[in-house]
Design a protein that fits this description.
Number of strands: 19
Largest sheet: 9 strands, mixed
Number of domains: 2
Distance between the termini: 18 Å
CATH class of the largest domain: Alpha Beta
CATH superfamily of the largest domain: Ribokinase
Structural class: alpha/beta
Strand content: 15-25%
Length: about 500
């Protein structure tokens, strides 16, 4: 797992690196500038003209160094400084003296150029952008020039991703050392363009307080099959899904569970779904119920049989569904609760109190809003806060599904960086439920399951989008790419 830092955490890392480890700040600055310079040289021919728009802080100092390095490589460069140079940081003044010694001057106006380098603000910005800074950002955004942002697009809050009035719309963002919360959460992520995380010499910083994200390297935590084994070694998965009118949710969850390695899958669903599910998934065992003659003993028998449970997709809400969710929670078996399972809990405070640390809740914003009785718009403005809030209060792991899925459990907070807008399609969440419960069944470390499952789900969605398009992909396409995702074939 790799780190995602807030602005204050990044400041502490900088301070520790400079003061405790002893790497001078100017050395870090040179390495940061070189990483941006190298990307521009890789992408842009030397015939392109470049203007650096710099503030008078250390982000602006990075910009001055970039201007110098590109100048020495033969690019036609200039720098426009916004702010009072007399109030500049010492590193800015050092970089300015170096540029003056090389004959690289400061210009007062914006240039008609091919490339802008945004070095106005760094990740520490926390106030609304106004005045000449706002004018500069709006000017840059209205040009056709390509934009490279230094560390984070100016105007984005590095700790939240919020747009502070106005922000640079970059084509590329080179961020230093670690992803920042502002480069991964929306709307900030939309302003970054392609993000490159550049190693400029920081330690790996193993800190449990930092937000984490999964990468391809973390696939090593997925359990692999041993030669001498049988289907029971890979989890007896119970999926309680579907209703009188809905069969697809159960089918997608069960198929995803099989694709992710579940040894045995039993579907507990409404009687109307027996025939269609039997045809779609002959590999699955099927138990059914009816609303008017619900037999709790059949559910209890299914729960007694299984190792792990997923409950909720397409299930509907009502008295029978309430009884089902209550029985599942009382079993204390590791459980993924999605969709109508969450909606059912939201309507019964006494059931909320039965949540425990072996439960994974997977709400989208609407379901989270009903669960907390907080407007979805308010939750969307601080996904991390509300995800942690539910985890702290109820002990359950929370996977809050959005354009960036945020997760919280007792080991920490995670954000998933895979996936795409094509996955905003019916059934996508049901596929995630199947992946997640299958990983539980195959004895994947419970605390790692949310990050690994959402990573696999997102990669499968990215592969599906490559095969067709974001517009035409369906949940079944995500299922069909789980195998490639699981095997790291991407």
């Amino acid at each position: 797992m790799k780190n995602i830092l807030t602005s204050s955490e990044m400041k502490k890392v900088d301070t520790e690196t400079i003061e405790r480890i002893g790497i001078p700040g100017i050395v870090l600055m040179e390495r940061a500038a070189l990483s941006v310079t190298s990307l521009i040289m890789e992408n842009e021919p030397v015939t392109k003209t470049v203007q650096v728009i710099a503030g008078v802080g250390n982000n602006g100092a990075d910009g001055l160094a970039i201007c110098r390095m590109l100048h020495l490589k033969g690019y036609n460069t200039c720098t426009c400084v916004i702010g009072d140079i007399n109030k500049a940081t010492e590193d800015f003044k050092t970089q300015l003296r170096i540029n003056e010694n090389l004959g690289i001057s400061i210009v007062e106006d914006f240039a008609d150029c091919d490339i802008f380098v945004d070095a106005i603000f760094g990740v520490g910005l926390s106030r609304k952008v106004e005045g000449k800074y706002k004018d500069a950002i709006e000017y840059i955004n209205n040009q056709r020039a390509k934009v490279y942002a230094v560390d984070i697009p100016s105007g984005i809050d590095g700790s939240t991703g919020e747009v502070l009035g106005v922000a640079i719309k970059a084509d590329y963002t080179v961020t230093f050392g670690f992803h920042k919360v502002g480069t991964v959460l929306y709307p900030g992520a939309d302003y970054c363009g392609k993000v490159i995380v550049s190693d400029i010499g920081y330690e790996s910083w193993e800190n449990s307080d930092f937000i984490k994200y999964a990468t391809r390297e973390d696939l090593k935590y997925l359990p692999r099959r041993i030669n001498y084994s049988y289907k029971g070694n890979y989890g007896k998965v119970l999926i309680i899904a579907g209703s009188k009118e809905i069969s697809g949710a159960a089918a997608l969850s069960a198929l995803a569970a099989f694709k992710t390695g579940a040894g045995m899958v039993r579907i507990f669903t409404h009687e109307n779904n027996r025939n269609i599910l039997g045809k779609l998934l002959p590999e699955a065992m099927i138990n059914t119920y009816t609303i008017d003659k619900f037999d709790i003993k059949s559910l209890q028998a299914a729960i007694k049989w299984c190792d792990v449970i997923a409950v909720g997709p397409g299930m509907g809400t009502g008295e029978v569904q309430t009884e089902i969710v209550n029985e599942v929670l009382e079993s204390k078996i590791p459980t993924v609760i999605d969709a109508d399972g969450i909606n059912t809990i939201s309507r019964h405070n006494e059931i909320k109190e039965k949540l425990h640390d072996k439960v994974i809740l997977t709400p989208h914003l609407g379901e989270m809003s009903r669960f907390l009785a907080v407007p979805a718009k308010e939750i969307a403005q601080d996904l991390i806060k509300y995800t942690r809030k539910v985890n702290y209060k109820y002990g359950a792991t929370v996977v809050l599904k959005d354009a960036r899925t945020v997760m919280a459990n007792k080991k920490g907070t995670y954000i998933n960086l895979t996936g795409n807008s094509g996955m905003a399609t019916a059934g996508s969440g049901d596929v995630l439920t199947g992946i997640m419960v299958a990983l539980l069944g195959t004895k994947t470390d419970f605390e790692k399951v949310p990050a690994l499952a959402t990573f696999l789900h997102g990669v499968a969605g990215d592969l599906a989008a490559m095969e067709s398009s974001k517009e035409s992909m369906m949940a079944g396409d995500i299922c069909n790419n789980i195998t490639k995702a699981y095997n790291g074939d991407f």
